[in-house]
Design a protein that fits this description.
The chain is mainly α. It has helices spanning 10-23, 27-56, 58-73. It has a domain at 23-72.
Amino acid sequence: MLAATIHVRPATRQTLEQLAADTRSSVQNVLDAAVEAYRRQVFLEQTNQALADLRKEDRTWKEYRQEIEQWETTGNDGL
């Protein structure tokens, strides 16, 4: 595994160490989990924004909803 040095504020380091101790994990595992949680949060925020933008366009939103309805009916195809 490649390792890299990153600079964090002392308070951030202390928080990472406290979380690691509280969860009986390593600082690396806590940091990995935090980055993954943040990645997911950003993804969901971007998805929500994209849907909000799509909804602003009546024609495009209608086409999107029609496609969703078509996909929803495929769940009953007996497979």
